[in-house]
Each structure stands twice: as C-alpha cells, then as structure tokens.
Amino acid sequence: MTYFQELAEALPRIMNGVWVTLGLTLGGAALAMIIAVTLGLMARQPNTLIRGIARAIIEFFRGTSLVVQLLWLYFILPGLGINLNVIFVGVMALGLNYGAYSAEVVRGSINSVQSGQWEASTALSMSRVHRMRRIIFPQAWALMIPSLTNLLIHMLKGSAVVSFITIYDLTFRVDQLRLDTGTWFAYGLVGLGSYFIIAYILTLIMNMLEVRAKHRLGRGESLREMLSLKPARPSAETGVLP
Length: 242
Description:
Layout: H1 3-42, H2 48-63, H3 66-79, H4 86-112, H5 115-123, H6 128-158, H7 170-181, H8 185-216, H9 223-227
C-alpha cells in the first residue's frame, strides 16, 4: 500500500485532529484576549495593589512552562476536587499562558497611542471608561493586531502540547499516520502542510481585521476596497493614487 493510500484511509482521523486543533486555538485565543485586555488595563492602573496583582499574574504565566501549566491543570486540580473537561483544560492552559504574553501587547499598544489623543479626550471631560472605549482602545487595537497575529500563530503551533493529556489533536493524528506508514512521510508532508495552511488562513483573517481597524480610524482603504478588483481611487488630498 502506498503512502497516499495510507493517507486517504487516515484522512477522516486527520480532519478530526484539524478540528480539535482549531477548536483549541480559537477557544484559547478568545480566553487569552479576555485575559490580555483585563491584565493589560490592570497593569496601567495608578493603584499599586491592582498593578502589582496584574504584574504578578503576567510574570508567573510568562515565566513558567506551558507544558507544566497544562499538566498541573490536568493532574493537580482533580486532586483538589476540581474536575474539568479535558478540552477545557487545553483551552484554559493556552488561554492563561498566551493571555499573559498578550497582556504586554495590550499594555504597550495603549501606551503607544499619541499623547494628544489622551489630552483631547480629557479636555472633552470624558470619563476614564468612555475615553478608553471610544478613543484610546480603538487606536490601540489597530496597533496591537500584528503582534497578536504572531501570538495566535504561535498558539496554533503550541497547541500540540495537548497530546500530553490524551487530546487527539492534529499532531497526535499525524503521529498515528507515521506509525502506520513506518516513515516520516506523515510529518514531512501532512504535518507541515496542514499547520501551514491553517496558519496562513488565520493570518489572512487577522490581516483583514487590521485593515478594517485602520479604515475605521481613517488610516487606509476599507476591506471592500482592498478586496475589490477595481483600481484604487485617487487620494482626496493629493489627487494621486496612494
């Protein structure tokens, strides 16, 4: 039986692994974003206690291994009477670990918003919440997307560690194919190709979010214009193509 025949027979299992990996990545990304925004905002608070709690959480999860965190959640929590679904454990480990990294991206991007924007919103007597929601965060969001894209792709690849707790993800299924074929064909073709395709699709989606975020700020073409086959319109200021 040829390698491609083996691949055809294993394709349903491979696709199942792809969906598991996607679920872990997207679930982990959603949790990481919630954690990142929360900790990123806390790390900017003038209150020393709140800022200190945020820094402690960020440094702990950045400074310890994702594998150790995963095993701790899977093996230690049940001993404390907390039993979690194995998929949720994977999502939680990814979200906590990458959420800590992303918190620094959020904090740094907010700090990078021009000081004039802060001063203008203060002059308009906006509350701190209103100022952050309507003025500062939309601008910071456009700045943080490229870094968050890198972390999302890193999370996709890092999700392979869930095989340590018997989650049958893409890497686990590819390894099964390697055992069936008795060669490294599975990793060389199926593994690399699958991860690359998923990563490329996620990158395209994040790039579209970046275009949309910048357009909402008046800093570039809209997503529709970017995807259109029509030639770009002349700039309103210069009368020439951008």
